[in-house]
Amino acid sequence: EITLIKDSQVSKLHKAAGRLQVTSMATEEQLFALYVQHVEKAEKEIERLHGEFAVLSNPEQLISDGFASEELEKLRTDNQKLKFQLNHLKRHLAEEQKRVRDCALDVRGVIEDIFTLAIHEAFPELPSPAILVVPSAKFADYQCNSAMSIAQLLGSASGKKVNPQEVAKAIINHLPETSFFEKTELAGPGFINIFLKKEFVSKELSFLLTHGVKPPKVQKKRVVIDYSSPNIAKEMHVGHLRSTIIGESLSRLFEWVGHDVLRVNHLGDWGTQFGMLIAHLIEKYPNLLNERPPIQDLQAFYQESKVRFDSDEVFKRKAYDCVVKLQSKDPFHYQ
């Protein structure tokens, strides 16, 4: 700005000098005096602009001189903070866009997050409403069924009946702009049908074909899977096998996603049932340490001990005593 002012003054001087030459009324001393006069005026203008610039760059001085209020300074400070946050978000967004995604997108989780925001905006008075999003192959891609339960919560709080359709309309009106949804429709008593954008579905299918099946990104947790935990004093059956297979399948899925899985299959070999077996075994085969008991059917042998345990109080006390000795690792009972 200062340079422009100088150039402008010099241009005016040249024009003035030209007029003097044309009229032949100016001497060299007059021309020099004219230059000096304009230079001094330009220097004063520069000094004035420097002073104004120094004042503007010192907010505290502006406030003390009464040119600006403290509210204005607060807004200026908040604006600087927002600019810093905006630049930080822009850098973070640029880094995320450059990063190659190595995990599948949890589409249902994304939809639940979007509807969580909408429901919180529509009904901030509800602390933790249920977010019910399910696949819907018949009517749409997904369906949100939260309106009915939210209507019940609102009705209980106000004492008046609330129409679930009105709740669903409020949720739809508060949905944020998103690149995932093609449209949403209200259906039935308060269902919200969700249609995904074809471009989004195409993009996810391309990722699947290019990278294969990848687990979604989740927060790592410790997962405990309890297997069949059979009572080995009794005969095992297909139910033990079924629950063990289910438990192992779940364990592998959780590990594939990224969780820390602890498999537990507790064998019930310390309780009352073994006290019954040991007491019955000692009484029926007192020489069991030297001769192997000829037990062909362990299930039948267990049933015999159970009948005696339920009907004979003396035998019951012996069974409990055997349990205590087993748990204390008495050599005879433990081995």
Please provide a written account of the structure.
Residues 72-99 form a coiled coil. Belongs to the class-I aminoacyl-tRNA synthetase family. This protein is elongated. The chain has helices spanning 2-23, 28-56, 59-64, 70-98, 107-122, 146-158, 164-173, 198-211, 238-257, 272-284, 298-311, 313-327, 331-334, and strands at residues 133-135, 142-144, 181-187, 191-196, 222-226, 260-264. It has 335 residues and is of the alpha+beta class. 61% of the residues lie in helices and 9% in strands. Helix 6 (146-158) crosses helix 7 (164-173). A hairpin with a 3-residue loop joins strand 3 (181-187) and strand 4 (191-196). Strands 1-2-4-3 form a 4-stranded antiparallel beta sheet. It has a two-stranded parallel ribbon with strand order 5-6. Residues 1-6 and 19-26 have low confidence and may be disordered. It starts with a helix and ends with a helix. The chain contains 13 helices and 6 strands. It has 4 domains: 2-57, no CATH class; 107-211, Gyrase A, domain 2, CATH 3.30.1360; 222-264, no CATH class; 272-334, no CATH class.
